[in-house]
Amino acid sequence: METTARLTSFTASELEAIGNEFEDQPPQVVLRWAFHQFHPEIALACSFGAEDVVLVDMIVEIEPAARIFYLDTDFLFPETRDVIERVKMRYGIEPVAYRSLLTPEEQARLYGENLYWRDPDRCCALRKVEPLQRALAGLRAWITGIRREQAPTRAHARLIEWDRKFGLVKINPLVRWTAREVWSYIKEHHVPYNVLHDHGYPSIGCWPCTQPVAPGEDPRSGRWRGFQKTECGLHA
């Protein structure tokens, strides 16, 4: 991996060391470094969840021409589409949507109805992972809103790391933040957010696979209930 990572001007070890140096710095410092190093070959993958709208607010101040994209699975909640429009209006940006190569109807013909309830891994591969691969093509780095606190699968995420799955640098500026810090920022800066967060949805994906979470439950336990699955495949 060291040789491959060198194509980005940094080895994987160097990225880890840089991330360690930034560990106690605010997210904006990390973002400024990332845009200085990789712009314009860097983008924010935005789900329009609480963490990602915080990053949008920060990024437009640092680099107004930053590339922002999202994965339109064709199964987004109406409330998610609503916050997309509010974010566009608030910040004057036009995030790029990436969709599956298959329409929902084509997917149903090829794989059967309600694939998301029968084989969610395959559905995520078709509607999220493959579109993400196209979105990341030609980039040297991508920015995500993952946090260590969100799930055991993310507990060891680094601030800056080499993404072996997709072959580029991965920047996680909010990785150290708590949910309290995220919501404090949203309230202080009046950031538009998905109203489903006010109704027991700490993590919001596609409507067939996302349910509200009871107090005290894992924040991602409302995703793919009934399956041994807490990640869609975007984050290894």
**What would the average pLDDT be, to the nearest integer?**
91
> What is the gyration radius calculated from CA atoms?
17 Å
How much strand content do the residues show? 5-15%
The chain-level structural class is: alpha/beta
Helix content: 25-40%
Biggest beta sheet attributes:
6 strands, mixed
- Morphology call: globular
What is the strand tally? 6
* Beginning-to-end CA distance, first to last residue: 16 Å
How is the largest sheet built, in terms of strand order? 3-2-1-4-6-5
Number of helices: 9
Residue stretches low in confidence (pLDDT < 50, at least 5 long) are 1-7
Topology order in helix (H) and strand (E) letters: HHHEHEHEHHHEEEH
Describe this structure in words.
The protein has nine helices and six strands, in the order αααβαβαβαααβββα. The chain has helices at residues 2-5, 12-22, 27-38, 50-62, 78-91, 104-111, 115-118, 120-136, 179-189, and strands at residues 42-45, 67-71, 96-98, 141-143, 160-163, 168-171. Strands 3-2-1-4-6-5 form a six-stranded mixed sheet. β2 (67-71), α5 (78-91) and β3 (96-98) form a beta-alpha-beta unit. Residues 1-7 have low confidence and may be disordered.
